[in-house]
Structures
1.
Amino acid sequence: MNDCIFCKIADKTIPSMTVYEDKNTLVFMDTAMDVDGHILVIPRVHAKNILDCDEETLSHLMSTVKKISRHLVNSCGYEGVNLLNASGESAGQSVGHFHIHIVPRKKGDNIDAWPHFNGAEHDTKEMFRKLVIK
Ligand code: AMP
């Protein structure tokens, strides 16, 4: 996609701090400066998000997510990771090229990476009946 910033990062039209790359995926530093070590993993082929991503691309993407997560824990002094993704504008997606955020974690780092929900409006059983796959 010509106007996609992450496609441009993938084809090197726009520079990035590339942590890792292979035939199918690219991993680079998120420049938001919101948390130490914030990394983005993207597929090279354009998919907007998980809703239109084909299975093979998804598989490559998650394989790289695992590789980078293991690298952070095995070689960079971290103990765990948070994986974050917004699929769709209503979910908070701001860049329309599928990406997984990785936030490296260690005990006592004082990072609050979990969303703050307002509490459910509907009973869990009611939601279950709506959501169950029949
Ligand atoms: P999301 O809101 O989940 O779509 O996340 C988009 C992320 O892309 C944000 O965390 C931005 O900081 C990040 N971002 C946008 N442009 C760039 C860029 N040129 N290089 C690195 N990160 C970027």
2.
Amino acid sequence: MIKNTLTKAFSDQVNKELYSSYLYLAMSAFAEQTGYKGIANWFFVQAQEEMAHGIHMYQYIVERGAAPAFGEIEAPPTTFEGIHDMFVKVLAHEQDVTESINTIATLAMKENDHACYNFIMWYVDEQIEEEAGVKDILAKLTNFGSDPGFLYNLDNELASRVFVHPFPNR
Ligand code: FEO
């Protein structure tokens, strides 16, 4: 059975993933309201991914024979300065998530729980991808964000993102 320290860490991470989903839904709603339907789509897909992460971690806690602890999910901000501001906040948020994923990996090592370590390593890799994707969009926004033509094209580009369930067989 999984140790209490790891159950607590995973439970807190479930909360963070659900908060992430909530945050990205709030950002999707803001983008919708400001007329950026493609960007809204990108955030909506991101919200679905985060929900899948939270549920995946929940299932893992249960599978390992422990009871997850459910805490309150914080309300996300609902207004932003604009598209650039949202992506600045996404990057900061994902960097924070990376920190907590790394903390779980360190704890799993300390507790000599190789199964947990193996499980969390998927998320270590996932965070590299997530941060890289967001950094790429943010760099473009920083360089060209004042050009309406660029924003129009970015909105079209992000409209094509589709949700692919990261764990289709679970
Ligand atoms: Fe599930 Fe974006 O971390």
